Amino acid sequence: MASKRLLSLDVLRGITVAGMILVNDGYGDTFVTLRHSAWNGMTPCDLVFPFFLFIMGISTYLSLRKYQFQWSAIVARKIVKRTVLIFLIGLGINWLANAMGGDYGWSHLRIMAVMQRIALCYCAVSLLALSVNHRYLLHVAFALLVVYAIILLTGNGYAEDATNIAARIDNAVLGYDHLYHKSAVDPEGLLGTLSAIAHTLIGFWCGRAMMKSKTTNEKVMRFLLAGGVMVIGGYLLAYGLPLNKRIWSPSYVLMTCGLAALLQGILMYVIDIQGRERWATFFLVFGINPLFLYVLSEVMAIVFGHCGVNDAVYGAIHAVVANTYWASLCFALTYVLVCGLVGWWLYKRKIYIKI
Questions:
Q1: Could you tell me if 14 and 287 are in contact, meaning their C-beta atoms sit under 8 angstroms apart?
Q2: What are the φ and ψ backbone dihedral angles of 244, each rounded to 5 degrees?
Q3: Cα Rg for the chain, rounded, in angstroms?
Q4: 5 pLDDT exceeds 90?
Q5: Closest CA to 165 of 140, 184, 141
Q6: Which residue from 154, 204, 328, 331 puts its CA 20 to 30 A from 239's CA?
Q7: Which DSSP string do the residues of 7-45 spell out, in sequence order?
């Protein structure tokens, strides 16, 4: 039964990573559902990264459970090594993007990004899991969200300009030259990471609730119940603190964690109880080597974009698919399929690249 539980989690992780690649690799005009919301609000595109953090919370519980959540030199080295590795890979991706444009230095290197936020959330949640009684971790998560909500409300946190407290903190700590410049607020900035840590902690708590359930049916019901409560809570909270991915608002945390929990419950029912798993093989391929395939897609996009490969591929697609929106979708699906082929090769050879 343990293996089947892990299978459903891997499938959800795979759906999420495939979605991350899909929404990141469009070309030109893209459907609104495949674009992040400009500010307040939420599109399907805004679900993929928070789903990944929720799943990482569950996975962190399962990983540290092997060590009985006790401090040891082995556990400490594992946490430090993984945190540093993921963070440095993220920096490397940012540097590669600059280098392809002719800037080989560090003076304009963006410090934060998706991989860096993953690293910080993993580190913080792992340390809390080893230091705090697990009965209180959900309290910690909601305390973080309350503190964050107060900071947003008192620090002009919903302003879409440089007066936003998140933008001011990033500028003061990291410096303007090391920030994301496509919007006024860095979507993976320092302040929002506080809320993202709470997000990952909720996933950790759901992992704990899952493992304490005696039957698979009970696990499914717990995921569905927790998911439903969080979705309703996020919806109601959005009246005062609107859904906003760029600042990772508290309502956004509850809504996306709730939707992830609901989907995990549904997948567990379909895969673990009904035994319908053949359809999920494509996503399983992404789920067992998630970060490697995500990083591969990012490197491909940077290198191919610089070398003109992306232009040539899109041109070939657009010659067949006249509508630019559908051509962009086909282009993004091409990236997903290429990464899927690499993942399939690794899957068939039982090669698991842990990052």
A1: yes
A2: -160, 110
A3: 20
A4: no
A5: 184
A6: 204
A7: HHHHHHHHHHHHHHHHHH---SS--GGGS--SSBS--GG
DSSP string, 221-285: HHHHHHHHHHHHHHHHHTTTS--BTTTT-HHHHHHHHHHHHHHHHHHIIIIIIS---GGGHHHHH
Residues 115 and 118: their CA atoms lie apart, in Å, by 5
Non-local (6+) Cβ contacts of 353 within 8 A are: 289, 292, 346
Residue pair 101/173 in contact (Cβ under 8 Å)? The answer is no
* Phi-psi label, residue 20: left if phi above 0, alpha if psi -120 to 50, beta otherwise: alpha
pLDDT class of 155 with cuts at 50, 70, 90 = very high
Measured distance CA(62)–CA(259) in Å, rounded: 21
Q: What is the pLDDT of residues 93-126, one digit of tens each?
A: 999 999 998 889 899 999 999 999 999 999 999 9
DSSP state of 310: H
Residue 338 · residue 18 · CB < 8 Å: no
pLDDT at 355: 84
